[in-house]
């Protein structure tokens, strides 16, 4: 064997000894933790956006937060030394995915400015149930009464969270915006399965963030702005963009777990994180009916995610 080849083998052996590959059981343990941490990052993003949405307009939030999100996305691609795919935004599947993400971001920001954080999080987490209902209605998955019952239980939980009979019920526009966000997220999940495999998660994140950023600045030009963007607002939105980026990375790590059955139900820890942040920051006090509704949404959503519908 040539000397150079022997030396190369020795170097690889030393690197392997210093950085041994992760054992399957270690990867399996890190998956649930990564999913719970990802939902915590997303809850923090929502809380920071809500703080800004009370003072700034929708266009201001989308534009400023989008600026930081694009910067973080570009940094990730540069660190990974990844090349952008030419003309990828011209593909209908990618353009549709970006449009749905923009609609979800806009409706979520609108909802967070009108309704409590816990209510918005609960309603948006009905997205897996709406995905399952759509698949049933379109014939993408076999019709079963158990699946229809799962959707019904989850929507009943959403009704308990909103509690429209109370005098201090959330604003109807806020509830409608949160439900619109859930529908956009459901459509986004379905459209993601049509994406070409040549588009990496980092590239998709950049394209999505860039779409929201450009739309925010265009909307800002044609609408009346709210209060001037203060340094505190910029710091909050920068932290929100960082939380969303970290959430995306942790989510990818969680989905690499060998046992997704243990990982996917932890997606609903977002409800717990959002409820805790709502209590700490806005002094929200969920009632017993609210906690029961959150439990129903989480249980029904976990069942829906266990057997996700596969479009034809």
Chain-wise SSE layout:
Layout: H1 3-18, H2 24-53, H3 58-79, H4 92-112, H5 117-124, H6 127-137, H7 145-162, H8 172-192, H9 201-222, H10 231-255, H11 260-263, H12 269-281, H13 288-306
Helix pairs in contact: 2-4, 2-10, 2-12, 3-9, 3-10, 4-8, 4-9, 5-8, 5-12, 6-7, 6-8, 6-13, 7-13
Description:
By secondary structure, the chain is mainly α. The protein has one domain. The chain has helices at 3-18, 24-53, 58-79, 92-112, 117-124, 127-137, 145-162, 172-192, 201-222, 231-255, 260-263, 269-281, 288-306. Helix 2 crosses helix 4, helix 3 (58-79) crosses helix 10 and helix 5 (117-124) runs parallel beside helix 8. The chain is globular and about 45 Å long. The model is unreliable at 9-27 (pLDDT under 50).
The gyration radius over C-alpha positions equals: 21 Å
Number of helices: 13
Helix and strand element order: HHHHHHHHHHHHH
Task: Tell me about the largest β-sheet.
Answer: none
Proportion in β-strands: under 5%
Distance between the termini: 53 Å
State the gist of this model.
This protein is mainly α and about 300 residues long. The chain is built from 13 helices and no strands. Helix content is about 75%, strand content about 0%.
